[in-house]
Each structure stands twice: as structure tokens, then as C-alpha cells.
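Recap slide: Transcriptional repressor NrdR, sequence and predicted structure.
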Amino acid sequence: MHCPFCRHADSRVIDSRTAEDGASIRRRRQCPSCGRRFTTLETSSLTVVKRSGASEPFSRDKVVAGVRKACQGRPVSDDDLALLAQQVEEAVRASGAAQIDAHEIGLAILGPLRQLDEVAYLRFASVYSSFSSLEDFESAIATLRSDRSDRDPDSSAGSDDGEASGRADRAGSASLGGAVEPEQAPAH
């Protein structure tokens, strides 16, 4: 590390501390030539290589923005999206690579998004995986159902009956809803 004062090519580390966010290291250094002290902040960089070949720094905000579209109208909070973006960044950084394809980030999003909201997962996967037919959706839904039944075998046994009766109840109330007229107040 060059001294910013005398440009000497070396410096001695006096103290190292992790910064507040844990993503960087603050080092206090001293130049052996001039004796002056200075501070450096070291962070690891993560570069995303897009399909076009362009590269840009990784951004949690871009992950959140992309997933937010899939979560429109779903019970997903901003805190949930921030946590998802953090999980994605941790997964991507765990690979140890300084450069990562945008495709890999999309794959890293799918797992946490599936845990967060299955409908949002299907929306995101349909765009990300370029679903081109109903069979693509049916296959993804079948996979979700089989995974759910593997996790909780009791939940799949009664779910079809409950869904069918719920549909019948909704259909019945919808047909009755139009036939019922409001009571009119008596004329004086």
C-alpha cells in the first residue's frame, strides 16, 4: 500500500477492525518512511456480467426491483425483499468468484423466492426461465405440489377437498349474490 503523503511503496498495519456492516475491513496503517498514519477501507467487489457482455457492480437494489415486480399484489413486505436480496448476495459471494453471470444471480433468486411466496416464484420463474406454454406452468406447479407433499404429507391429503368445497362455496355465493335485491324502505 503506497503512503498517500510521501508515496513510499510500503506501509505497516497497526490495527484492523471489521466495519459496522461486516462487509469491509478498516485498517490503520503507518508509513515506515515518513511515520505518518492513514486509514484504508478494504471491501470485496462483486461484478455482474450481463448477457450483452457488459459488466457492472452487484446491487441488492436491482435484485429487489426485479423481484418486486413478481411480488405485486402478494403479501410480501419490503423487509422480506431486503432479506431475500441479502440471502442472494450471500449465496453469490459464497461461490468465491469476483465475477458472476447475471444468469447465476437469477438462479440464486429462485430458491429464496420460492420459500417466500410460491405465486411470486412462479411469476419470476415464468419470465426468467422463458415459459412458452401452459405445459411449462403445469410442470412448475406440479413440482411445487410434489415438494410441498414431500415436506408435509398430511397437508396434501385434505387440500383438494378443501379447495373444491371452497370453489363451490364461492360459486354458490356468486350466483346468489346477483339474485338478492336490497330491501326497500316503506313509503310514507
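The chain is about 55% helix and 15% strand.
The beta strands are 12-18, 24-30, 37-43, 47-49, 55-57, 99-101.
(End of recap.)
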